[in-house]
Specification:
Layout (H helix, E strand, L loop, with lengths): L20 H16 L6 E14 L11 E11 L7 E6 L7 E2 L1 E3 L3 E5 L6 H7 L3 E9 L5 E8 L13 H7 L6 E4 L16 E11 L5 E8 L4 E4 L9 E16 L4 E16 L14 H23 L2
Parallel strand pairs: 1-14
Antiparallel strand pairs: 1-2, 2-6, 3-4, 3-7, 5-6, 7-8, 9-12, 10-11, 10-13, 13-14
Length: 312
């Protein structure tokens, strides 16, 4: 049986951030807000619902059939500096409702499902319907609410895959690599809604031993390559990668002032072991005598140019 590759989109004991650029931007914004807003009351900012179809690439050949499916719920809430005072729960039509989301640094409450063998099995537990989020503080007694109306899945039919050459280049990688993959076209917007459906491609590389993210970059859906510098990775280390075709639907709950995100991620995961990546030479600082000579040279050039201008 093939060993399971831990992934941002697979059941795992490791906790990592979501695998798309939108979440990183949102998190930076939340950190800024937490340091600048005057009040200390509860503030429910954003809610996420992710449905993930996961493939596995174990050779230069593109994967054909999904390996498993997962479902994720997340909320960004302030203040959430400690796990005790704030609780986030989600009520929905599934048999395990309601769910309490687990606190993870920095201001994220999250739940990731077990791996499902089919999309039908996943929807038996997490069906379409209203997912009502409630954030409450046991310290202040405050509570705030919002809800995601989960109507349908909008996955691209394209399957993310590294080219055979890029997959081979990662195995025993000893130098920088331009990772190449296929492009794709985002699905059309939801029927009867003005909410935009946005798409991007993200490559994340993480240490399989501790889950540390070593590299992440996102590009538009039409792009077909991402440059991975060798100095982003350690030599002789086993890494996992997630190549994600991400489609995200955004809606603003104006009544409760909460941003609502639905993500439909088609993920291909894999792994590789780096080779003896050379350590880049340290930045050299000129000796004092060199700095003096350089300064004198620049000063002389400036004086020569000034004289030429003044004597015109």
């Amino acid at each position: 049986m093939r060993a399971r590759i831990p992934s941002l989109f697979s059941e795992s004991k490791r906790v990592r951030l979501r695998g798309n650029a939108t979440a990183v931007i949102c998190l930076v914004g939340l950190l800024f807000i937490s340091n600048t807003r005057a009040d200390a009351g509860l503030q429910f900012l954003e809610a996420f619902l992710d449905n993930n179809t996961v493939f596995v690439q174990s050779s230069g050949a593109a994967p054909i059939s999904p390996d498993h499916y997962t479902f994720r719920l997340q909320a960004y809430v302030l203040p959430a500096l400690t796990p005790g005072p704030t609780i986030v729960s989600v009520s929905y039509p599934g048999p395990d409702s309601p769910l309490n989301l687990s606190y993870t640094p920095i201001v994220v409450f999250s739940f990731l499902s077990a791996n499902f063998a089919s999309e039908t099995d996943l929807h038996a537990v997490y069906p379409f319907g209203t997912y009502a989020f409630t954030a409450s503080s046991s310290d202040t007694g405050e509570s705030q609410h919002s809800a995601i109306d989960y109507k349908a899945d909008f996955f691209t039919s394209a399957i993310p895959a590294l080219t055979a050459q890029s997959y081979a280049d990662l195995q025993g990688m000893t130098a920088s690599v331009t990772v190449q993959f296929n492009s794709w076209i985002p699905a059309p917007p939801f029927a009867n809604t003005s909410d935009p459906l946005l798409g991007d491609t993200t490559l994340t590389i993480f240490d399989l031993a501790d889950g540390h993210i070593a590299f992440r970059e996102g590009v538009g859906a039409s792009k077909t390559s991402i440059f991975v510098p060798a100095d982003a990775l350690q030599a002789n280390t086993q890494y996992g990668f997630d190549l994600v075709f991400h489609e995200g639907l955004f809606h603003q709950d104006l009544t409760n002032n909460v941003g609502l995100f639905q993500s439909f991620n088609v993920v291909t995961e894999g792994s590789f072991i780096t080779g003896a990546i050379p350590i880049p030479p340290p930045f050299s600082i000129p000796e004092p005598s060199g700095l003096v000579l350089a300064s004198l040279g620049l000063a002389g050039l400036w004086w020569k140019m000034r004289r030429a201008i003044c004597h015109r």
